[in-house]
Amino acid sequence: MSVPTRVIPCLDVSGGRVVKGVNFLDLRDAGDPVELAALYYAQGADEITFLDVTATVDERATTYEVVTRTAEQVFIPLTVGGGVRSTEDVARLQGCGADKVGVNSAAIARPELLGEIADRFGAQALVLSLDIKRSERIASGFVVTTHGGRTETDLDALAWAREAIERGAGELLVNSIDADGTKQGFDLELIRAVRDLSSVPVIASGGAGKAADFAPAVDAGADAVLAASVFHNRELTIGEVKAAMAAEGVAVR
């Protein structure tokens, strides 16, 4: 029997509000994170991902109070990322109700962080968040970015994903900066490239615009599909996405 594909709404949060833009730019207010999380839980979301998109840029910790209130409203796995720099940050987030943490910039700055988190909390609690752009100067054609997509590194995204898994990452959140917010569909080439090297679950993110966009991401190798704009703008419900996926033969809960 196939493992059901997870449908995950993403709450990009800044200043205690959900925000959304295009290619990580021109962020606009999209609502209250607690209210939206409760709505998506009621609609049948399999998980909720909560990303404090300005925590690293502002050099601060994530908004613990919002995480706590969100965890009180939803009873499905909650992943929290943004500003996670130490195992103590992870412990505090778990105390607020997070089930998993996402790390990106801090792990690039100090890769040992991945092993420290995995050793203390288990690989299942550690999600490597990959904000990826296409780049002709990188061997694979994909480069890792940090600080909410604002800063390009010299890291080959595929090489970094492989190293992160070896260091203990239990899941890869693969976000295409180029596709983000465009509603033109997921970057299927990127998903396939990561799937080919990954021994852990892959979450596809960036580009969903219609219900028909999700099944191709699964066919390309995604274990879970993540979206934001189409849910925040009430263009699609979780149920509509699952129905469209099921119609294409994708197993869903």
UniProtKB/TrEMBL annotation:
What EC number(s) are associated with this protein in UniProt?
4.3.2.10
Q: In which pathway does it act?
A: Amino-acid biosynthesis; L-histidine biosynthesis; L-histidine from 5-phospho-alpha-D-ribose 1-diphosphate: step 5/9
Q: Which reaction does it catalyse?
A: 5-[(5-phospho-1-deoxy-D-ribulos-1-ylimino)methylamino]-1-(5-phospho-beta-D-ribosyl)imidazole-4-carboxamide + L-glutamine = D-erythro-1-(imidazol-4-yl)glycerol 3-phosphate + 5-amino-1-(5-phospho-beta-D-ribosyl)imidazole-4-carboxamide + L-glutamate + H(+)
Recorded hits in Pfam families, A to Z, give: His_biosynth (PF00977)
Task: Please list the GO biological process terms of this entry.
Answer: L-histidine biosynthetic process
Is Cytoplasm one of the keywords?
Answer: yes
Q: Where would you say this protein principally sits, based on its record?
A: cytoplasm
State the UniProt keywords alphabetically: Amino-acid biosynthesis, Cytoplasm, Histidine biosynthesis, Lyase
The GO cellular component terms are:
cytoplasm
Q: Which residues form the active site?
A: 12, 131
The record's subcellular locations are: Cytoplasm
Q: State the Gene Ontology terms under molecular function.
A: imidazoleglycerol-phosphate synthase activity; lyase activity
Keyword Ribonucleoprotein assigned: no
The record's family statement is:
Belongs to the HisA/HisF family.
**Mind telling me which HAMAP family this protein's record contains?**
HisF (MF_01013)
* Record function comment: IGPS catalyzes the conversion of PRFAR and glutamine to IGP, AICAR and glutamate. The HisF subunit catalyzes the cyclization activity that produces IGP and AICAR from PRFAR using the ammonia provided by the HisH subunit.
Quaternary structure?
Answer: Heterodimer of HisH and HisF.
What's this protein's name? Imidazole glycerol phosphate synthase subunit HisF
Give the lineage: Bacteria, Bacillati, Actinomycetota, Actinomycetes, Micrococcales
